[in-house]
Request: fold
Amino acid sequence: MWDWQQVTGGDAGCIGQDAWCDIGGAHFIVGKDNFWLFDGSRPSPLGVGMVRNWFFSNSNPATRYRTQCIFDRKTNRVWIFYPSTSATSPDHALVYHVGTKQWGTAAIPCEAVLNYISAGMTIHDLATISATIDGLPNYPFDSPYWVAGGQSLGLFNTSHQLQLLTGAAGTSAAQAWYVGDDDIYTLMDKVRCRFSRKPTVATIETYHSAELGETETAGSAATMADGKFDVLDSGRWHRCDFTFTGDHTLTGIGMNLIQEGDV
Reply:
C-alpha cells in the first residue's frame, strides 16, 4: 500500500529534468521561481532577493528547462549550468558553496556535465601519454587525475570533447558595493585587498557619485602594488570594481575615506 502526500513549503518542482542534484542528505533544486533545498521534510528557499532576481533576469526563459545541476563533492559546490538570455543551450554557470552559502558565476559553454572518475595513472603509464615530461597534461601531482577512482568535475564542451574543471583560474572579477554617507563628502585615496592566496595581477576601477541611483562618474584605474591600490576620488558614495588574474582567495576589502565636509 502506498499513497501520495502533499509536501508543504512551496512550489518547489524542478524547472527541467536535470535541474537538481543530490548534495548528500538533501536535494538542491532549481524551480520555476526560486532555488530550493529539500531535506525530505519541507523545501527551503535559497537565493531569495538579489541572486534569485539576477538568475531569472539573466537566463533564457524559453530554454531554461535545459538547466543542468551537479554537485562537486570535493569542493562542496553546486554548479548550475544554464542558457543565458539569448542562448539555447547552457553557456554560463551559477555556483553555490554549500558551506559558506556564497554565490559566484562563470562563463562556460557546455553540452553535458558529469563527475568524472579517472582510471588512475602510474609512472609506467606516462610514456603512453607523452615521450617527454614537458608533454604531460598540465595537472598538479595531487590532482585526482592521477589517482585511480579520483573524482573531478567534468563537462563535454561544444566540440563534444570531455574536459575537467581542474585548471588554473583565468581572469575573474569582484565588485565592492557602495560605501559612503548621504551628507558627507569623502576623499578615497587608498584601497586594500586582503588575500589568503594572492593573484598574479590585480587591477581596480573606481566610481563615485553624489547620490545613490544617479549616473556614476568614473574615477581612478590602478594596478595593485605593495598590497594596495593608490586612487584619488571625491564623492559621497564610492564603488570599486576589481579584476584578478590567476588563482586567489579574497578575504577582505578596505577603503580609506577622508572626510572633506558636510553638505
Notes: The two ends are 74 Å apart (CA to CA). The CA atoms of residues 85 and 156 lie 21 Å apart. Residues 171-262 form a domain with the Jelly Rolls fold (CATH 2.60.120). The longest helix spans residues 50-57.
